[in-house]
């Protein structure tokens, strides 16, 4: 019987073995999909953990990509870009949003002169005044320069002059040569009223992007026109849009022109309400300031009496720019400790 017992025992062991194997191995297979899933997930996690590296590699690849966009070189013909080579002109129009003298095409209509449209305004910072480039006259305590650009304008210049005359004020009119040629009588009225004329170029072209020869011809053509029509010589020049270059400043100096820009700009060419023009000027103005305004704008005309009155209330008398310059020159002469320049 031991053999029977042994067989039974062996059979039980075999059975247990089969069961053991079944229960032990079944879970593996039962969970197989999950395990695989975990494994895949792990793989994915592993892949995800590599993702930043891949991304970095991708970025590196982009960085090394020969077609990657590079900083664009400065387009020297782009009117909105202030070139470093223009040195003191670093601007636009400041602006310096406030520093850009911008004449809209509408401002120069009313004649058949074919004046060019203005370039876009730019944020052009206006540099401090130099001996030749003047945005404000230092050393002045009770005066401000009052200037009107872009004239003469028929039916408007006369009205500006009437207001000035009534309030016993004289101003500087930076005029366009071609307009003087068309309306010489208006230019003469400006001088008869006691105001002065400055050059604002022949036809309001950008002169900061052109040659010395072109600039010289432009300045001389306006000066000759004024001499012929009004009998006055010119000494003040305001470049269109306030844009200047080293070349422009050099030529202007050679021809004995002071380049006059401004430190107060109410942006009247945008035709804000008169009270806004007044408020803007009062906000910015200081003794010795140079205020830029424009001819041909009804709101500027309406604002003018208030501007003059409020400036006077502050003890600031509006005068032509040359009067402030002459005042300083007289001071220099009386104190003259330095040789003439
Ligand atoms: Zn202008």
Automatic annotation (TrEMBL):
<keyword id="KW-0624">Polysaccharide degradation</keyword>
<feature type="region of interest" description="Disordered">
    <location>
        <begin position="35"/>
        <end position="128"/>
    </location>
</feature>
<dbReference type="InterPro" id="IPR011330">
    <property type="entry name" value="Glyco_hydro/deAcase_b/a-brl"/>
</dbReference>
<keyword id="KW-0326">Glycosidase</keyword>
<dbReference type="GO" id="GO:0016810">
    <property type="term" value="F:hydrolase activity, acting on carbon-nitrogen (but not peptide) bonds"/>
</dbReference>
<keyword id="KW-0858">Xylan degradation</keyword>
<dbReference type="Pfam" id="PF01522">
    <property type="entry name" value="Polysacc_deac_1"/>
</dbReference>
<feature type="compositionally biased region" description="Polar residues">
    <location>
        <begin position="99"/>
        <end position="115"/>
    </location>
</feature>
<protein>
    <submittedName>
        <fullName>Putative xylanase/chitin deacetylase</fullName>
    </submittedName>
</protein>
<keyword id="KW-0119">Carbohydrate metabolism</keyword>
<dbReference type="GO" id="GO:0045493">
    <property type="term" value="P:xylan catabolic process"/>
</dbReference>
<dbReference type="GO" id="GO:0016798">
    <property type="term" value="F:hydrolase activity, acting on glycosyl bonds"/>
</dbReference>
<keyword id="KW-0378">Hydrolase</keyword>
<feature type="domain" description="NodB homology">
    <location>
        <begin position="142"/>
        <end position="319"/>
    </location>
</feature>
<feature type="compositionally biased region" description="Polar residues">
    <location>
        <begin position="79"/>
        <end position="91"/>
    </location>
</feature>
<dbReference type="InterPro" id="IPR002509">
    <property type="entry name" value="NODB_dom"/>
</dbReference>
<dbReference type="InterPro" id="IPR050248">
    <property type="entry name" value="Polysacc_deacetylase_ArnD"/>
</dbReference>
């Amino acid at each position: 019987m031991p053999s029977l017992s042994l067989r039974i025992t062996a059979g039980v062991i075999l059975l247990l073995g089969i069961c053991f194997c079944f229960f032990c191995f079944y879970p593996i297979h039962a969970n197989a999909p999950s395990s695989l899933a975990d494994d895949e997930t792990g793989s994915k996690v592993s892949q995800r953990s590599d993702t930043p590296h891949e991304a970095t590699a991708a970025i590196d690849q982009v960085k090394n990509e020969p077609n990657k966009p590079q900083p664009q070189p400065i387009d020297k013909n782009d009117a909105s870009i202030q070139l470093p080579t223009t040195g003191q002109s670093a601007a636009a129009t400041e602006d310096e949003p406030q520093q850009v003298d911008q004449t809209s095409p509408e401002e120069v209509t009313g004649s058949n002169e074919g004046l060019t449209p203005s370039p876009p305004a730019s944020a052009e910072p206006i540099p401090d005044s130099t001996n030749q480039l003047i945005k404000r006259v230092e050393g002045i305590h009770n005066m401000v320069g009052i200037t009107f650009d872009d004239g003469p304008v028929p039916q408007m210049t006369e009205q500006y002059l009437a207001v000035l005359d009534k309030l016993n004020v004289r101003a500087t009119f930076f005029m366009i040569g071609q307009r003087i040629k068309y309306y010489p009588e208006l230019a003469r009225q400006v001088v008869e009223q006691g105001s002065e004329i400055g050059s604002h170029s022949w036809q309001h072209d950008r002169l900061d992007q052109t040659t010395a020869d072109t600039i010289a011809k432009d300045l001389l053509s306006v000066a000759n026109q004024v001499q012929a029509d009004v009998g006055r010589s010119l000494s003040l020049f305001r470049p269109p849009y306030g844009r200047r270059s080293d070349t422009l400043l050099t030529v202007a100096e050679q021809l004995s022109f002071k380049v006059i820009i401004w430190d107060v700009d109410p942006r009247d060419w945008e035709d804000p309400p008169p009270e806004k023009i007044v408020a803007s000027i009062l906000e910015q103005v200081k003794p010795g300031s140079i205020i830029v305004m424009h001819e041909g704008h009804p709101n500027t005309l309406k604002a003018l009496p208030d501007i003059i009155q409020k400036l006077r209330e502050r003890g600031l008398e509006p005068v032509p720019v040359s009067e402030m310059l002459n005042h300083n020159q007289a001071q220099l002469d009386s104190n003259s400790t330095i040789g003439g320049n």
